[in-house]
Write a structure and sequence with these properties.
about 300 residues; alpha/beta; Rossmann fold; Alpha-Beta Plaits; 6-stranded mixed β-sheet; 4-stranded antiparallel β-sheet; about 30% helix
């Protein structure tokens, strides 16, 4: 459905993508997971025919994104990271406009967007610029889907919206997948990786790994510990100086720690911290998250 071969892209001296290759199957929710500046938006803009790659090739539904861009644009849906609908048009007017652009009507494809649009239909006479972040998100997705595309590209669609709207949005994507629609979605939120069938972890224009989320977690390969103690600022420094330390990262109110050794001597680690005058030391073995895996791959 989507095929990417050795795509590269530079902006001056900045390398946005480095020989990126992967394949996405029909009906798959595929996630591009990485922080801001990782190369996610550049890749999506190439696949949606908005910018040209410097080298490499890509196909979507068998169409080359460079040579067949005119044919491809009518067959895909795209929701950019920044809300880009017409602020001075109402919800209803925006949807009708996008339907007419693609030579269809709202009524013809209403069944596809019903679950999404019903949530904003009570506000159909409200101007788009006056909608909340979650409502704008639902309207943008409705407009991207109104011509019944086989593939949709969503660039950080849940950025800047509340937790409830984020959850609702992913529920909507699951329903679109049930219609056989292929979805490529990017996000900086590591916790959203579990909603995807497969994810690509990307940083600095390079993809570290591509796999189902549970496989990435199972491949972590080290025992992971959550550590809490007094003087947390000094704790990071002292843990990094411990002779058996492999990695130390801050995660919320605790520190995630791994060792070079296959088996961690908890008592020895506890004693080391006590000798450094730490109190209230808590060391607990935990399961790694996608974010832990991402940090490990970046080392």
């Amino acid at each position: 459905m989507i095929l990417v071969r050795d795509i590269e892209k530079k902006y001056g001296d900045v390398v946005a993508l480095k020989k990126t290759s992967f394949e996405i199957q029909k009906g798959e929710i595929f996630g591009l997971i990485g922080p801001d500046g990782a190369g996610k938006t550049t890749l999506i803009r190439i696949l949606t025919t908005l910018i040209l790659p410097d080298s490499g090739s890509s196909e979507v539904m068998g169409y080359d994104v460079v040579n067949d861009f005119k044919k491809l644009r009518s067959k895909i849906g795209y929701m950019p990271g920044k809300f880009s609908l017409y602020m001075d048009l109402t919800v209803e007017e925006n949807l009708e406009l996008f339907a007419s652009i693609f030579g269809t009507t709202v009524e013809e494809n209403y069944e596809l967007i019903r679950d999404i649009y019903e949530q904003i239909e009570p506000f159909k006479k409200r101007r788009a610029g006056n909608l909340s972040g979650g409502m704008k998100q639902k309207l943008a997705l409705s407009c991207a889907m109104i011509h019944r595309p086989e593939v949709i590209f969503l660039d950080e669609p849940t950025t800047g919206v509340d937790a409830v709207s984020r959850k609702e949005f992913w529920q909507m994507l699951k329903k679109l997948k049930a219609h056989g629609i292929t979805i490529l979605v990017s996000t900086p939120y590591m916790d959203e990786a579990g909603m995807c069938d497969r994810v690509a972890l990307i940083q600095n224009g390079s993809i570290f790994t591509i796999a189902p989320p549970d496989q990435i977690v199972s491949d972590f390969g080290r025992h992971l510990y959550s550590i809490r103690a007094s003087k947390r600022g000094d704790l990071i420094h002292d843990l990094r100086n411990y002779q058996f330390t492999h990695s130390v990262f801050i995660f919320g109110d605790s520190i995630h720690y791994t060792e070079k050794r296959k088996t961690t001597d908890i008592k020895a680690l506890h004693q080391y911290l006590e000798n450094k005058k730490y109190t209230e030391v808590e060391i607990e073995q935990i399961e790694p998250s996608i974010e832990d895996c991402f940090m490990e791959l970046m080392k």
